[in-house]
């Protein structure tokens, strides 16, 4: 379970901040996804379902304490964060099939922005594109949007946000902070 080794020889971890899904919600989304015709796409394991707030990328293990401290200082909504994943989209450049909200709560955008700002002094810069909340259902998806037997309507209620490490196709929670 060791981290990777970067070009400089320093150990690193691939990190991201996200809102996690509970076990019952994971099962419901996986059942719904199972009814979609996804062709040869690679389904994301339901254990990996999450809503990314910020992708950190490869961070040196020596930088981890500073990342944790910066995240702990992020101003949070102070209440349960709720959003509805109710639209299915195909993101062609990424070759991904994703669930997205029709409406993104302001508190969610503010949390993602606050994380980006907290990471800037550490030299961690987010892609300048607008924040697009999503839950990835499948990778290597090349078809058009599949027909769903029932419309998506998954309510995500987050009580905390989490820093995850991506390791060999699995996501490991490293720390979490209450909302």
UniProtKB/TrEMBL annotation:
- Motif HXTX 1 mapped to chain: 50-53
Tell me which domain of life the UniProt entry assigns to the organism this sequence originates from: Bacteria
Question: Which reaction equations make up its catalytic activity?
Answer: a 3'-end 2',3'-cyclophospho-ribonucleotide-RNA + H2O = a 3'-end 2'-phospho-ribonucleotide-RNA + H(+)
Q: Does the keyword Hydrolase apply?
A: yes
Entry's Pfam families? LigT_PEase
Molecular function GO terms recorded? 2',3'-cyclic-nucleotide 3'-phosphodiesterase activity; RNA 2',3'-cyclic 3'-phosphodiesterase activity
Q: Where is this motif: HXTX 2?
A: 134-137
**Is Hydrolase tagged as a keyword?**
yes
Q: Where is the active site?
A: 50, 134
Please report which protein family the annotation says this sequence is part of.
Belongs to the 2H phosphoesterase superfamily. ThpR family.
Instruction: Report the NCBIfam families cross-referenced here.
Output: 2_5_ligase
Main function: Hydrolyzes RNA 2',3'-cyclic phosphodiester to an RNA 2'-phosphomonoester.
Q: What is this protein called?
A: RNA 2',3'-cyclic phosphodiesterase
- Species this chain originates from: Pseudomonas donghuensis
């Amino acid at each position: 379970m060791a981290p990777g080794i970067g070009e400089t020889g320093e150990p690193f971890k691939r990190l991201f901040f996200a809102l996690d899904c509970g076990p019952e919600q994971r099962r419901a989304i996986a059942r719904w996804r199972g009814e979609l015709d996804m062709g040869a796409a690679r389904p994301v394991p339901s254990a990996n379902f999450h809503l990314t707030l910020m992708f950190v990328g490869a961070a040196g293990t020596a930088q981890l304490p500073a990342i944790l401290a910066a995240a702990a200082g992020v101003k949070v909504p102070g209440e349960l964060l709720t959003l509805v994943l109710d639209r299915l989209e195909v993101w062609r450049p990424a070759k991904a099939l994703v669930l997205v909200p029709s409406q993104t709560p302001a508190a969610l955008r503010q949390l993602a922005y606050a994380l980006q700002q907290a990471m800037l002094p550490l030299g961690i810069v987010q892609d300048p594109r607008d924040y697009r909340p999503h839950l990835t259902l499948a990778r290597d998806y090349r078809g058009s949007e599949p027909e769903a037997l029932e419309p998506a309507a998954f309510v995500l209620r987050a009580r905390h946000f989490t820093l995850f490490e991506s390791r060999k196709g699995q996501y490991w929670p490293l720390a979490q902070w209450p909302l």
